[in-house]
Design goal:
mainly beta
Length: 189
Amino acid sequence: MAKTAATTTAKNESWVPPVMPDRFKKIETDRFMYSPERCFGIPLVGWAIGKERMAPIQVGKNPDGSPIMREWSAIVIRATQPTRATNRDKELIEISEGQEVLIPCTYQLDNFLSAAAAHPARVFEIYINPKEQIDIGKGGQTMWTFDLGVSPESKTLAEFGMISKLTGKKLLQLPYNPETGEVIEEGNS
């Protein structure tokens, strides 16, 4: 049975978890969430390394009491400059360069950034800054709009190593020309 901090007893109080050997690159499993409401005025800038399907969230209840669930996804960004995000306890925390952040895919983000996040050969540095929250005219529903940018510089997927293969790159795998790295649009081969 593996020992964890939660299962220490008087007999093994001095137990210390093992240290990961240097030859391994840590996989970020504790990612933080970029929230336009909480991070307004602080842009998210970094490499779009993937797009992840997230666990469905409950958005209401049916008349019979059963939950109404909604599918959603998020773009995974490896920060290239400090920013802020929320942790699991909804606390606003500082994010350092190199940490991974999730940003939920709104219509605008999905429409303009999914191709960059899912590119099969290149990784793009992107800029996301919440601009304004607008009413979409559906019972008080609102949505955020963003100032978006992409750097003309990109890196090969190989420069990110195995880590990039552990994100949702294959979620929206796009056909591409392996010689140029350019995405092949539908109907053009």
